[in-house]
Design a protein that fits this description.
mainly alpha, 203 residues, 8 helices, Four Helix Bundle (Hemerythrin (Met), subunit A)
């Protein structure tokens, strides 16, 4: 759903990408740095219940995911290895976010939110897996109401607001997580349906 914003945002950060490329920074460096930062922030902050501060740091490092693309375009540095690395690092960061939340809920006897978080983790991985397998089989699978960007926005906003200083929003984290479970389930269904239709045409 947020793919429509990628072009204007990409144009806005292209000058930064060119500056970094001219300085010898590679997309892979940025990808790894962003993943290490986001993963560390999630693993350190979320298990301690520092949801607001953790969310700010995670969001900052997640934005590296757009900068590495700008550097690749500016310097002509995009590679197939870089694409695999970027996708793999996305899974690492996402797992750190949801895994850390699951650890917090498990330690604080919140089984419903633990279940929701684990479902988000599984469905998010399945969403990416279906797309990868579909593209490997020669299909296109760029559909879904909850792709990675949407999933991160929902979980980070809901988690951050739950610990926002001076603001008490009841159940915001629970609402965000269960909303994400529903949206991710729909997305998996959309992707299977898209691949099924294409397979019928190909047959």
């Amino acid at each position: 759903m947020l793919n429509l914003l990628r072009a204007p945002i990409g144009k806005a950060i292209n000058p930064l990408g060119k500056s970094l490329a001219d300085a010898g920074v590679t997309p892979d460096m940025i990808t790894v740095a962003g993943t290490v930062g986001a993963t560390a922030a999630a693993l350190i902050a979320y298990p301690r219940g520092d949801f607001f501060v953790g969310t700010l740091f995670i969001w900052a490092f997640v934005m590296f995911d757009m900068v590495d693309g700008a550097v690749a375009r500016a310097g002509g540095l995009g590679t197939r290895f870089g694409a695999v690395l970027d996708s793999s690092c996305d899974r690492i960061a996402d797992s750190a976010v949801f895994g850390s939340l699951a650890w917090w809920f498990a330690r604080h006897d919140q089984p419903a939110l633990l279940l929701a978080t684990l479902l988000c983790l599984v469905l998010g991985s399945l969403t990416s897996y279906v797309k990868a397998r579909a593209e490997g089989a020669g299909f296109t699978c760029n559909v879904g109401i909850a792709e990675r960007s949407e999933r991160l926005i929902v979980v980070l906003v809901g988690t951050g607001l739950s610990d926002f200083p001076g603001l008490h929003v009841p159940y915001v984290q629970a609402i965000a997580l269960w909303l994400l479970v529903a949206a991710s389930t729909v997305t998996v269904g959309q992707r299977f349906a898209t691949v099924w239709r294409q397979s019928r045409v190909a047959a």
